[in-house]
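assembly run, all chains below
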Amino acid sequence: MKRLVVLLLVAGLVGCSSGDGGEVADPTTETTAGAGGDPGDCTVVDAAISPEKIDLVTDLAETFNASPEARDGGMCWFIAPHRKSSGAAARALYLGWDEAAEGPLPVLWSPAASTWGQVVNRRLTEGGETPFVPDDFERFMLTPLVIAMPEPMATALGYPANPVGWDQILELARAQAGWADFGHPEFGPFRLGKTNPNFSTSGLAALIAQTYAATGKTTDLTAEDLADAGVIQYATDVESAVVHYGDTTLTFLNNLYRADQRGNALNYVSAVAVEEKSVLDYNAGNPDGILEPGEEPRPPRVPLVAIYPEEGTLFSDNPLFVLTADWVDEDEAEGARRFVEFVGRPENQERVLEFGFRPANPDVAVGAPIVAANGVDPSQPTTLLDVPGPEVMLELLDRWETQRKRARVMLVIDVSGSMGDPADAANPSGPTRLDLAKQAAVEAIELFAEDDEIALRMFSNDIDGDGLVGDADPEGDVQFEELVGYGRVGDNAELVRSRIRDLRPLYGTPLYGVTQSSYDAALESFDPTRINAVVLLTDGVNDDGDTSDDRQQLDELLANLESGAEGQLSRPVRVFTIAYSADAAADSLSRIAASSSAASYESTDPASILQVLTAVISNF
Amino acid sequence: MKRVLALLGAVALVAGALALRSALADDSADVATEPGDEPGAVAAPVVACVPELETVCRGMARIFELRVEEPADTVAAIDSGTEIDAWVTFDPWPEMAGIESNHAFFSDPGLILASSPLVMLVRNGLLDGACADDPNWACAVEARPGRAAVPSPDSAVGRLALGWAAAEWNDVVRPGEPFATAEFELPEFRNWLDDLATDEPDPLDEVLVLGPAGPFVLATTHADVSQRLAGSREDGRLAEFQTSRDASVAVVIVGPAAEFLASEPTLAANFESAGWTPSTEGSSGLPSPGLMFALAQEVSS
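ok done. output:
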């Protein structure tokens, strides 16, 4: 329960029912100004917009700001969108929006799903405050939660002729021989991708949908339902097939795409709960939905098929809330209402299709790219699930903590000399990087479940203190020390915390060698019933005293991780990396994570390390 | 005494509004008086309007303060002493409001302005056999439990649609038998009511936005269908039926300013352009106001 409370506090996610278009409910998401231009003397209408639609809304805001609709007599309005993930915005709204940290107070708020509004109002009411998210709002666009499956696997299940849903996912998860039990041994074990419901709206929508499927209901999910032994077993068995969790569906899609490009699409993950929009992006060769300059989308070799669960699903409805908070004056609200009316116009609603969403305006037809040729079905879904009430939602999340797949994680922390540098260069007498990392790591242990297993390593050169590093040490340079061996968090959390507190900065950063040895150690004690992972935190680049073989070391490491992560008989150990500070080798770390089909995280500002660690641990 | 004073006040407001209206006509000015305007020679009468009729009300809202709100909000406002000079709603909501509050709000029955048939919309191909050709609320709910919907009975049209659907269930399942609150206890009625979706304030909106994920069968007015379904992406995907129990919803305006507002020369045209037929006949084919009130209570419990 502690874990849940902390996660809720950090991520601000309590009960949102819909998917998120790959939105990262990342507490580190920066608030960045959207539409540029000079507002002049116009009334500025600040808008907090969830990341998956910030580009579209920014574009529409620019058009609006230059249009006659933004003017009325001597009045004019200027819409200023700011990127803000749904969970972070919700939390800021109900805890008290700090403009210095969160950006301007929003007049208009568009999270991924309208349930966020209920969450904020409920929290405000609990705190004795007046709710300010209106019940009456316009939807911007829609996308349903689907189960994305590589086409050959969907075909093997007989989809679409045979309906497929969570019951089939359960059968696959329970199958002792995996896909072999379904006549396809070549697909290997069944592997499910689901995000953490405390962080990701897609993850929460999937949890709700799978729970409804377990009950056979489509509405009125109750706490009694959740306590039913059959429902609990259903959930536990589905979770047992999970590859890992995480804060965003993009991790799965990016890893799947990389595997696909290597011809291994069928061995990474068999099914992923994502939004329909993400299937379109993936099949277009743009798995993260963002085209960087120079990036050219290349369709995958094996496309995904969007399966609309037979038992029903939920929509992400992207509401446009004109807040009734006391900081919103009537002039600002009028500007927001004008913009809402503007984006609902057919010509603007047609644009949401370009981004893979379904228009909310029913006068605009659902057309390309939402067509069968792209792996989706515009005539689906046909069953909509009811959003459970807040109490049931909390109970659902609470129970998920006991039902989710357990993890076996080795924490590997860099104690090189540079970790002793000030975290803030402008404050030389302030805390060091290591000080902040230790403090965050000690707190983050709380985020593991008691039945998770963790181990702790520190790494640097010359751990043995003989003053010799690399090949100069005739007895071999000692590059790491195992401070705590694997053990239940419930049993050794205090010991791990104590060892972390004792860490001191030492010498160099033998990054590649230690990553390899840590991976090997995790592989040696691989537990197939758990998520097996290494979490690597470093602020530097590989520095083992010999730069001549750095490239070779990295290539060998990447090849080992890749071969371990793929194949039917693989024993996947995921290496999640944290590039800590701007000095870290972010690119190498990203490649290391990708090679093990994990995810890399960046904490370029050391002050954000707790938030980053929280996001990393959301994978377990 | 308080009520008498309120009525006298309303008459004064109407007189003031008439004076203003006359002045505006003389000046050919196009001015709307809104709350918060500079206080002038007159105060504007306050008109409450149910959301289903917002378009029409806004079309006539040139010299009064308009409140677009659900019936319960209007009733609560009146109960708390807020002056409402006219209420544009569906017949017999004023009577139902009186039942709910245990006192009559308006001394006269008001003026009927327009009407529209209550209709059933069915997604193509989702009812079978006789129910597909000649649907009614008994077979449709049985065929599509949870996916056949009437608007929430808290909404103006929803309470009437619920009464219509329930009465038709009785016509079909218990032909010739009376239908009153005692029948609420019948197991077959309870099952039917449990299977009828009544949560959504606007099931047609769900259908329009969510397509086949929305209700398969729903109740609304023909006026609503003509305004919102026609031309939408769902147009042609649902069939409209007037079921065996002919029923229609009439728009009524009540209150001291009713006559003045009903005399708006453009009113009939406004209703027609919103899909309503000008009429002086009250709602038809519905159970008594008391029974509809009781049904709504039953659903909310």
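The radius of gyration of chain B is 20 Å.

Confidence is low (pLDDT under 50) at residues 1-42 of chain B.

not gonna interpret more than that til we talk
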